[in-house]
Structures are given as structure tokens and as C-alpha cells.
Design goal:
With about 170 residues, the protein is an all-beta fold. The chain has no helices and eight strands. Strands 1-2 form a two-stranded antiparallel sheet. The protein has a two-stranded antiparallel ribbon with strand order 3-4. A two-stranded antiparallel sheet has the order 5-6. A hairpin with a 2-residue loop joins strand 7 and strand 8. It starts with 5 loop residues before the first strand and ends in a 26-residue tail after the last strand. One of its GO terms (biological process) is integrin-mediated signaling pathway.
Length: about 170
């Protein structure tokens, strides 16, 4: 028949050990099958596999058959990432007579300020780390400046690498 095992986690020689009592007394030559389901947290930085060492021990008589068995289980984190973007203002129209003023350090001489805001959301179920987001922003069109990249900022513990040509004219 099926029985629930009584399992107790503990630390032994610096390792995390889970000790499960299978039954006492057990008849000589008894064969048992044990299915275990383990819930392990904090695997984000464990690599692509986790290794368990399993051993069946008898309190009555030590046996060379009580060998240590190593089981490697692949770890695959799953997360759904969502990128949202917005431009402020949403629509920008330059007057037909407007021309950029070469060499000027005034923002208005380079065009209308447009702010692009991107939000990267993790919809789970796993946590993520080491994410790289690459945004390709067209700064030129037909050899002429389309967007003058002024500055780049982040929030929430992220870091960014400034693209080449960021605020090249020190506006």
C-alpha cells in the first residue's frame, strides 16, 4: 500500500539533508518503491542543473549495497517578459520652415524634445537576472539627423551602456 513518509530536513556536514523514515521493522528482502517530490527554491543562479545525492541506510547492519547514488536534474527557469513603450508627446510635427541651427547648444535649436519610456516587466513565473535588452533607435535617415539622442536614464537597479553619438554636440 501507499504510505506518506515522515521526512525531516537537517544540516549534516555543511550539506542540507532530508532524512525520511521508510519503515521499521522491514522484512528481509523487502522491495519498496519511493517517489519523492521536492520543492527547491533559489535556483536562479544554480546553472542549468542541480545534483542530489541519495542513499538508503539501514540502522541494523551497514552494507556495501548502501552506495551513494547521484541524480542530476536539469533546471530550466521560465519567465514571460513584456516590453512596453511610450513616447511623450505621442505625436510630433515640425513646421515646414524649421531648420536645425548648426553648432547651437540650445535644445530648441535641435528640434522638439520627445521622451521615449520603455518598461520591461517580468510576468513570471520565475525570477530573472542578467537580462540584456537592446534597443535600436534610428538616429539618422538618408544621411540626415532624424533623432538627436540627448540622454539615457534608468530606474530600478538597471544599468545601461550609452550608445555611440549620445549628445555628440553637448546640448
Amino acid at each position: 500500500g501507499q504510505e506518506k513518509l515522515n521526512c525531516n530536513p537537517r544540516k549534516e556536514n555543511g550539506s542540507h539533508v532530508v532524512l525520511c523514515e521508510l519503515g521499521n521493522p522491514m522484512k528481509a528482502g523487502a522491495r519498496i518503491t519511493v517517489d519523492m517530490e521536492l520543492s527547491v527554491s533559489g535556483l536562479e543562479d544554480m546553472g542549468d542543473a542541480i545534483t542530489f545525492q541519495l542513499q538508503l541506510r539501514s540502522k541494523n547492519s551497514p552494507s556495501p549495497a548502501n552506495a551513494l547514488v547521484t541524480v542530476t536534474v536539469p533546471v530550466e527557469a521560465q519567465a514571460v517578459m513584456e516590453l512596453r513603450g511610450n513616447s511623450l508627446p505621442a505625436t510630433t510635427v515640425l513646421p515646414a520652415s524649421w531648420h536645425r541651427v548648426e553648432g547651437s547648444r540650445q535644445l530648441e535649436d535641435h528640434g522638439i524634445k520627445v521622451e521615449h519610456v520603455y518598461q520591461l516587466h517580468n510576468k513570471g513565473p520565475s525570477t530573472v537576472s542578467g537580462i540584456t535588452l537592446r534597443l535600436a533607435i534610428p538616429s539618422q535617415l538618408g544621411g540626415r539627423i532624424l533623432l538627436y539622442l540627448l540622454e539615457l536614464g534608468t530606474e530600478g537597479g538597471m544599468s545601461c551602456t550609452n550608445p555611440p553619438g549620445l549628445n555628440a554636440e553637448q546640448v
